[in-house]
Amino acid sequence: MPGYADDRARELPSDAPSRRHDAPHRWISSRTRSIWHWQLAVAVAVSAITVTVALLSPETFTRPTFNAGVTLTIAVSAAALAVPWHRLSKPAVALLPAIDIITIGLMAHQGSELLTLLWVFPVTWLATHYTLPWLIAGLCEIAGILVTGTLVTAVTPDRTLSVIVVLLALAFIGITITTTARRTRAFRRLLERQFHQLERTLRRVEAQEKRAMALFNSVDTALARVDRRGVVRGANHAYRRLYAIGDVANPHPTAAVEYDTYRGNPLPPQRTMLARAGRGELFDDHRFWLFDAEGMWHALDATTSASPATPDEPEVTLLALRDVTAAVTAEQEKSTMTTMVSHELRNPLTAIIGHIDLLLDRDDLPADAIDNLTVVENAGQRMQRLITSVLDGSAPTPLAERVDLRRVVAASVDAFHPVAQTAQLTVEPAIDPDLHVSGDAFRLRQVVDNILGNAVKYTPRGGQVRVEARRVGREVRLTVSDTGIGISPADIERVFEPYFRAETARASGIPGTGLGMVISREIVHEHGGRLELTSALGHGTDVVVHLTAVDAADAERIAE
User: Which of 7, 407, 409, 474 is the most exposed place for a label (fewest CB within 10 A)?
Assistant: First the structure.
């Protein structure tokens, strides 16, 4: 409800009942003060009229109704100052203008019709703070007083006209004020809704800004926004930690120094990342070194990107610094370890191969011993080449030479024959004579060894491994089948992921790296072929390698 009811609702917060008696001054400042102002305005007007009457027409005081009206007005005004209006309802407050209408009617009775103009005060009061029904009730009260007064005195045309004029004038004033007040209240509510909506929007913007800033500060990459004057307009925690900057708004000379290389030359001021970003230079993953305030070295990759100007901010450049110290250190450690491992592995292999050569030079060795030593020598030489390939960190490009895959497969079968015998496995080779392909014999031997080695390793005692190499049209097809532990359907999809080992392989307790099949497939792809694997849990695994066959004409072209 509008009027004092709205004011009272706005003044009462949600916890007001518990605090009402603790802070009565809250009501004096708004609702109660407004009531006082209206009633005191009536009292002041009546007092001024009383003084005027005493000076100009003292005989008016001989009328009891006039004196009663003045006395009642003063008494009501005095009582209004003592009543706790914040505890009363809207109808109770409306008693004041209703009583004022009565007191003014008493003062105007019997000869002082001009005093009816004082009804403007209660009518304005009702029209301002109450709705139209309340105003109509007040006008009806005035009409009743006027009609009663006319009937008590005498009904004359002038008296009737006076009553009508007063009522019309008061009705016009009241309706006009009511309409204006209603529009004012509607406009006020609209402004309040817009204000609350704007306030909610501002809170959302602030929340979004806080979330964006939290995300900006949570990333490990050091970020800074640099304008064209080289001033940092914003930086996240990672950037401030890296350069030991406490407050971007109040910068101070930083103790962190940028270098072109590790322990190299410091960058001149015009070549620092901040200066280059300030000039709007765009670069990607530019490597430099930073010696921070705590005496630590950081390898950083710097990247810049342009940010267009906005009405609130000039054009800036976003500088992103990614700390790659761990990767650089790991690369250096890998290089050091490669050198050490290369030295520690190659020396024993060289000694082994050298002593085997000495043994093979002897004439008193039996034929089977010579065959076994020859297998060991070939394996040692292959191990040397494999160590060199792995430690160099890159796979060599397959050679474009004609390779007899039959010999490669037969040599691999012979190499695993002693292991298969020890494990009581049956290895059944079925190899066609004409199996020439194009590629690198050493790399293809890796493929065959990995596949055949897995078959022997994961097949229980008494099992069977079958190796077939066939010419099928323009294709050479190598198939290795076993009756081993197999692979579950869920693990087959991940067999070619680096370092992945199937659940059955892990449960067997047999050591492995999870790289054999990955390397084998890469080598087959490098040779233009494909590798397929099927398996059934507990029934074994089939691995098929498809390579393009090479005829005599193709061999001549390869030789050229």
Answer: 474
Q: Is 2 helix (H, G, I), strand (E, B) or coil?
A: coil
Structure tokens at 144: 């009743």
To 5 degrees, how large is the angle CA 7–CA 13–CA 16?
Answer: 105
User: What tokens appear for 96 in the block?
Assistant: 């004041």
Distance CA 38, CA 125 (A): 7
Sign, Cα dihedral of 389, 390, 395, 399: positive
Q: Which residue has the tokens 């704007």?
A: 198
- Average pLDDT value for residue range 347-364: 73
Residue 402 structure tokens: 């004609």
What is residue 152's three-state secondary structure?
Answer: helix
Is 526:467 a contact under the CB 8 Å cutoff? no
C-alpha–C-alpha distance, residues 347 and 70, integer Å: 126
Q: What are phi and psi of 162, to 5 degrees?
A: -65, -45
CA-angle at 371, arms to 370 and 374, nearest 5°: 85
* Amino acid 14: pLDDT: 38
d(CA 456, CA 425): 8
CA dist., res. 514 & res. 325, Å (int): 29
Q: What is the pTM of this model?
A: 0.40
